[in-house]
Amino acid sequence: MENSISYSSIEDIQLLSWENAPKYCLQLTIPGGTVLLQAANSYLRDQWFHSLQWKRRRRRRRRRRRRRRRRRRRRRRRRRRRRRRRRRRRRRRRRRRRRRRRRRRRRRRRRRRRRRRSSYCGCCCYFECLFSLSAINHH
Questions:
Q1: pLDDT tens digits, one per residue of 37-57
Q2: Name one Pfam family in it (predicted).
């Protein structure tokens, strides 16, 4: 392509980016402009493809870097947490055990209440069970 193009056009084409291609094509009113356009298009196509590849490479690199950074941060955090855990282990364990026991008891009570509400208690009249305030206690 270099031999067939005059007017030192390759230098101009190399200064282009593929985004500015339409502006450049409008300016080509030189004799032998078709050859210039072909050269520009081929160069811009290669540049565009290269930019796509570069973007893909960048994304891959960023992902790798992020993973590495996350791993490093996790390691640092683990070291800090280990120091804190040694101090707070006893407190945390006691709190967790108490909470778990309370939650289990509450769940059992709730299940029993739900089952009793559907059935008639037998302590009073059926309508009294349904419409009185004491229904909360009976069921």
A1: 566 666 666 777 777 776 676
A2: PH_21
- Does residue 35 surpass a pLDDT of 60? no
On whether the CB atoms of residues 37 and 25 are closer than 8 A, the answer is yes
Instruction: At 103, list the tokens.
Output: 């939650």
Amino acid at the residue 24:
Y
70-113 pLDDT, tens digit per residue, is 666 666 666 666 666 666 666 666 666 666 666 667 666 666 65
Q: What's the rounded Cα separation, in Å, for the pair 96 and 103?
A: 11
Concatenate the DSSP letters of all residues of the chain into one string.
Answer: -TTT--TTHHHHHHT--GGGHHHHHHH--STTHHHHHHHHHHHHHHHHHHHHHHHHHHHHHHHHHHHHHHHHHHHHHHHHHHHHHHHHHHHHHHHHHHHHHHHHHHHHHHHHHHHHHHS--SSS-HHHHHHSTTHHHH-
**Calpha distance 37→21 (Å, rounded):** 10
Decide which of 9 and 87 is more confident.
Answer: 87
Q: From CA 130, how far away is CA 116, in angstroms rounded?
A: 13
